[in-house]
Design goal:
There is one protein chain. This protein has 463 residues and is of the alpha/beta class. It has helices at 27-38, 64-72, 86-92, 109-114, 133-138, 151-166, 169-177, 203-214, 239-245, 265-270, 288-296, 327-331, 347-367, 404-412, 440-451; strands at residues 55-58, 76-79, 98-101, 120-123, 143-144, 195-199, 218-222, 234-235, 248-251, 275-279, 300-305, 336-338, 392-399, 416-425, 428-436, 456-462. The strands form 3 sheets. It has a 7-stranded parallel β-sheet, with helices on both faces. Helix 2 packs parallel to helix 13 and helix 6 (151-166) crosses helix 8.
Length: 463
């Protein structure tokens, strides 16, 4: 039996910002310009031509503002306060078109292979190392994150840790809670005039640099690329030079093969005697057993850790030796601040992260825009207007190989292609095309023809 014609929606009560073709502008420039265009012409809200209700799974207590926004877009949203294990995800994810996570949930190759309907992944945090990015891209699934929104929250936490370590604040507070009065000034210092060494001078490191200088600290930093210093900060040529000079060393790097255990026995020995180490980046960038040795030998005067190689999946779960074999020893050390991955856990940061990532998910599901995707070509087109009722948007993810555009354009040749944009990233390419004068009876045929091309990964039609 031949497929029934699909009615193309002509109107929608929702108004969503229009988009523009990708010029040589920043992401934020493009999004601001999109908002200004929305006041000129009303965009048409697009829908999948198969009319399937899109379901989203949000985990790890993602902000209610994000939940409300996505539901207002017409999506069905299931919200969980905890992370799910790989087995739980494999069982649940086949029914969902999008998933939103924070840092504890792992989207592995096995999960992606089980996700037969999955179109997009949203990481409501900075990092994306909890997602198998290559497998997601090869399955036609873009991954979005929020690289800027919690930078200030993390930077402020580091400042608090610097002061708390230099004054042994947590140790004195713990003693007083035990009923012990222990007022002393030995080995307690002002931070004014001390040297802060920042490893990774990105969004967090640069903000931290400004805050630290406001406290009277000297700032040096190491980064793998040359960066423009803010204020009086100074870039040093090697990590070893930073470690030898800094009184406080703070880490702000992603987890990559080259950053795993980047601070280990050799690097800890290169740090100044009586200095402090702070890690609010990723748990595996520090060799914890080596750090424990450096603290027990008094070579380091203290440390603050907000991230760990293995972390509990939910609040209330134990942080003990069953999770990391050294947990009991680490918890027993004096002047060591341990916190449960709260660097970005402020009301302000979570609200901004929720807004940024939920809007990225909606733009992709509604319009096919991949601006801001971390594993995918960044492609966008200006909006189809409400008056263009017979227009259809083709979203075609395909293998990056010769001849694809010619093959697709041959299929589109009976129609008026009003605008088209294509880009590639690695082995994956992405094409957006708006075509006019498409009748409802042609929609199924058009989708099937493009889906059957040899390089096809995923094809969606929005109308």
């Amino acid at each position: 039996m031949s497929p029934q014609p699909i009615a193309i929606p002509q109107k929608s009560p929702r108004v969503v910002a229009a988009s523009i073709s990708p010029p040589t502008q920043t992401l934020h420039d493009r999004l601001r310009h999109r908002e200004s265009l929305a006041t000129i012409r009303q965009p048409k809200v697009l829908h999948p031509v198969d009319n399937e209700n899109l379901r989203l799974l949000l985990l790890e207590n993602i902000s209610q503002e994000a939940v409300s926004y996505l539901r207002a877009q017409g999506f069905t949203v299931d919200h969980y306060t905890r992370a799910l294990s790989e087995d739980e995800l494999v069982e649940k994810i086949p029914q969902y078109h999008a998933v939103g996570i924070r840092s504890k949930t792992r989207i592995t190759e096995r999960v992606i292979k089980a996700a037969s309907k999955l179109l997009v992944i949203g990481c409501f945090c900075i990092g994306t190392n909890q997602v198998d990015l290559a497998t997601a891209a090869n399955a036609g699934i873009p991954v979005f994150n929020s690289p800027f929104s919690n930078s200030r929250s993390v930077a402020e936490l580091v400042i608090a840790e610097i002061i708390a370590l230099s004054r042994q604040l947590f140790q004195r507070s713990f003693e007083l809670r035990q009923g012990i009065w222990n007022k002393q000034s030995k080995s307690c210092w002002e931070v004014r005039g001390k040297t802060l060494g920042i490893v990774g001078y990105g969004h967090i490191g640069s903000q931290l640099s400004v805050l630290a200088e406001a406290l009277g600290m000297r700032v040096i930093f190491f980064d793998v690329i040359n960066m423009m210093p803010l204020g009086s900060a100074r870039q040093v040529e090697t990590l070893q030079a930073l470690l030898a000079e800094a009184d406080f060393v703070t880490l702000h790097v992603p987890e990559l093969p080259e950053t795993v255990n980047m601070i280990s026995k050799t690097e800890l020995e290169q740090m100044k005697e009586g200095s402090y180490l702070i890690n609010n980046a990723r748990g595996r960038v520090v060799d914890i057993p080596a750090l424990i040795d450096a603290l027990q030998s008094k070579h380091l005067a203290g440390a603050a850790l907000d991230v760990f190689p293995a972390e509990p999946a939910s609040n209330g779960a134990p942080f003990d030796d069953s999770l990391n074999s050294w947990s009991t020893t680490l918890r027993s050390l004096p002047n060591v601040i341990l916190s449960p991955h709260i660097g970005g856990s402020t009301e302000e940061a979570q609200r901004m992260i929720g807004e940024e990532v939920s809007q990225a998910l909606a733009r992709y599901l509604n319009y096919g825009s991949t601006v801001g995707a971390v594993n995918f070509p960044e492609v966008d087109l200006r909006a189809i207007t409400a008056e263009q009722g017979d227009h259809v948007r083709v979203c075609h993810v395909h293998n990056n190989q010769p001849g694809v555009l010619r093959q697709v354009n041959d299929i589109l040749s009976p129609y008026n292609v009003e605008k088209q944009y294509s880009d590639s990233k690695g082995d994956v390419a992405y094409l957006l095309a708006d075509i006019a004068d498409v009748s409802p009876v042609d929609v199924n045929k058009l989708r099937d023809q493009i889906s059957q091309t040899r390089a096809n990964i995923l094809t969606r039609l929005l109308a």
